[in-house]
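User:
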Amino acid sequence: MPEGHVTHRLARTLTREFGGRPVRVSSPQGRFADAAALLDGTEFERGDAVGKHLFLDFAGGRVVWIHLGLIGRLHFGPDEPPASPGTLRLRIAARGVRADLRGPQWCRLVTGEERDAVAAASGPDPLRPEADPERAWVRLSRSKRAVGALLMDQSVFAGVGNIYRAEVLFRHGIDPHLPACDLGRATFDSVWRDLVELMAVGVRDGRIDTVTEAHTPDAMGRPARVDRHGGEVYVYRRAGDPCLVCGTPIARADFHGRNLYWCPTCQPAGSAGGPR
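Assistant: Predicted structure:
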């Protein structure tokens, strides 16, 4: 499932390509046809994102709320007839450019008030400048749930997914199974700052990179990682491979329905890590 850096990057691209212009809106698939007809020819104001939620603001207070889910994709390209109209939920086009949405978990026309309710129910988003990490800290400090589970809870941390969860815990030496209430405030603050920086890099580069200069392929004389997610990481999808820091094989386990990756040596059982 795309993480928060993807939705924020898409929002910026939508604003750059269509912001302030009247757009053509259609639903070749037909499932969004009634809403598309209401939006067709109106001004596209901007794209916005809160965590994994993508919002498309149109004139008149109309908002399209998109969640990409596991297989959804929003693709930009030249405005030409769609190759597979039967799977094309939404098309936005203007000035020879189009954005095609396929396979979202949902795509709905909502009001500004409904969009605000979604944002209010989400946890602080490290990619939003007004985000208040205190909200996340209060939830963690009062919970005995594993910190690795709370990092994936979108009502606690909006936009953090499986990759950023695994990587930020490794970077701070935190056992993913540690009760969240055992995490120190200084370590939490450091984790938050790290998420802000790492996710901003993800928006800028369009991929997730979490290794420091000392552990890049060039610095270590190792092959670059080959994975559909791209980017250089410490533990995510590296089960059985040697840790880039200590050489211990990376561990993997099913954890609340998702794959969890960690280094048993760098993140020993019970470790609350420490600020970086």
